[in-house]
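Figure S4 source data
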Amino acid sequence: MTAHAPSFPSSIDELTFPSASHNFSHVLSSLKRSHLSVANRLRSIDRDSQFVEHIANAYRLPVIANERCGSWYIPPRIKAGSAYFKSTDGHQGQWSFSMRRLNLQVLEIVGRDGGCVIADSTRRGKSMPDALLKTVPIWCAVFNNLLFGDEKEARPRLFTAEDVVSASEHSQIEERLDAFTQEAMTLQLNVPRLRSQLKKPLRPFWVTPDSSLPDIRSTAKHYHPVVCCTVSHRVHGAEGSENGYIQGAGDDSEGWSHGLTPLVFWKNRSELLNAPEEDLPDLISKLVKQEEIHSGLMVGNDAVLIKPTNSTYVGSLSAVSKNCRFDAVVICSEIASHKISTDTSTVLNKATPLLRLECPGGKLGSRALRRQLHLLSPFLSAQFNNHQNPRILFSCPKDNDLAIGTALVALCLFYGDDGQVDESRLTRGQETSGNMIDKQLIRQRLVWITTAKPSANLSRSTLQAVNSFLMQR
């Protein structure tokens, strides 16, 4: 009796797999989500914050958060301020000196305390973020050129981490420094005032949880140290390979935080770290609402005067109070037609002129702002004609984008270089004055805002809306 040969599949299409195999990718995704849970992120952030405190104590220097994620890792009691150094300005071949984010507040802190620590993190796969590796060194080099470029003492023009940044990349960045410095000079910064703050040039150093502490004492006589601190331990294996630890856990918080902010986290740290994973979304929602109620009671304390003017202010919606006594208010908010209009009597003096520009959040808000900016000129002209130096508040929910863009338009349209209202612009018509506005003037006025309000973070889309409106008039 002849045995039949077993029948083997002759093509991939004939292969069959257990049904469970079809769910393999789903299982992997579930495991990854489990590892990247909110609880693991908060515990990882708390672990990394201990390294930040260690560095602050070791160097006895103030700690500055590089936003957006730096504030997650810094206990508020040791946080001296925030900075905005973008990693994209340090990417290979895209090196840049930001004309929008000058971070002048960092110079003030360094001058006052002799140096600083800038804290940031990066996700799995890198040892340090490009913001600390290259953007901060470029920033240091440009301000060294601006403030100390006329000194005869020979010193390196650029400092980079030799073990991470190649000699070729260092050289390519160095070749661009003169161009970056020339661009910065067009901003008409108050160089003598900045020079009075800094007695010595800036020098960056780098430290991570996996490195030794650099010795900054040997150069302290000649330089102010700027310690670039990467807070997260580098994970070399796959996600989940280190018992729940997540490198760069604070990154992209809008995708995982359920609305939790660094401020709310640090105010309720113990409660959040001890809560079961399944309870965290509801607990976070409760804590965020409590903070919103508390913040809403802090009315009228956050309006910032934009110098050298004596009449232009920027603040959040909580600054729109009858106790603030502004002569006019401009509000950019998607709730302008609801909360503000229906409750005007309790939020604002009825006699106060109010311009509402209805703008949602994000890029849609920037586009909506562009379509409504034409309403600003006649409104402000009326205020300037009716009052001598009227106090005008520009407001939006978070006071760091749409309100900044609207105030920037006003500064370009109506104010001279001395910060005073140019009355000739009121009498000769805005079309004539509009011809004088270019990107250089817009950048110079933006410097006024970022100097007065370091937390101002004008988005690229809002700046594009402002440029489009001003230069196409």
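Figure S5 source data
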Amino acid sequence: MAVSLAGRTAIVTGAGSGINLSFAHLLLSKRCNVIFADLALRPEAQELVSSHSSASQSPAKAVFQKTDVTDWQQLERMFHVADKEFGGVDVVCPGAGVYEPAWSSFWNPPGHPPSTDSPNSSHYRILDINLTHPLRATQLALSHFLSPRTKSRHPASLHNPKSIIHISSIAAQVTPLPFPLYNASKYALSGFVRSLAPLEARLGVRVTAVAPGVIRTPLWTEDAEKKRLIVEGADEWVEAEEVARVMGALVEEAEVVVEGVGAGEGEKRRVRVEGGMILEVAAKGRVRVVEQFGDPGPSGAGNTVGRMGVAEEEVFEKLGGGRWGRQ
């Protein structure tokens, strides 16, 4: 399935910053309209939306829709906005996510500051954002793809393909002790993507994912507790633009260039893009297929955090006090 994004419409959650902003920028450059679904826009995102606010300014239009992805009604609303503004949607990226923040972390149990999760709520907010939201957004996308709400749109088919692109992580395979809820959310998301692989051949709906390494985004660079774990000069960043480029390829290309298994060290090969595919994105634009069975796992530049052991020792310090988790 090779498709042109020109004239199509995408919904991107979390488009106010990071990888999702870079992906939204890429889509707009390909003349694809974009709904920026986020709680707020960083200045660079606001500038991008403002410069694409009308057809006279740009061949593609950007619309900001304030969205709390943990609220299912607000998720539905972003699809209604796409119907109203553009007649429907063709690409959905439920990319909003958080990296085990202190306010919703396994090692800060509900009811124990700085956690803001309530022991009476029966849920972790990080899982609402990282897992439940992309699952629900995928349900809504399939509903709108298969049963368009406007007469100008035709249902998804092999001749009218649609795409859902998720953001997993190398944390689905490399699972550091300090971030278990994040690891679990990405492990589950990768399994979810693989389970929807048959949709492309039968219905024309391609569901894929990227699995980035350590990304130079605000989730790392503006969180002092996370950034201190990076060893500058030894650990390397993966750039958000590199991830966005691979996401674009998964949405619109029939083949992608990858390295790793089946190609030899440093060698490249072309592989067919298909539903259920997960591509790891490491530093310097290195892309690797994450195989379902027999995968060697992430390695190399962009996949290392040199001081992770510091955070692990801090976890054991918390557990050693004799009162961890007690009300």
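Residues 125-146 form the longest helix (22 residues). The CA atoms of residues 57 and 79 lie 24 Å apart.
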